[in-house]
Amino acid sequence: MRQLAPATAELYGAGRMVLIYTAGSVGGFLASSVAGQYLFFLPRLLQGAAFTVGASAPIFGLLGALVWYGWRSGSRALGQQAWTWALAMFVFGFLFAGVDNYAHAGGFAGGWLAARLLDPLRPERPGHVLTALGLLAATLLAVLVSVLQSFTIAS
Question: Is 38 exposed, middle or buried (0-12, 13-18, 19+ CB in 10 A)?
Answer without folding.
Answer: exposed
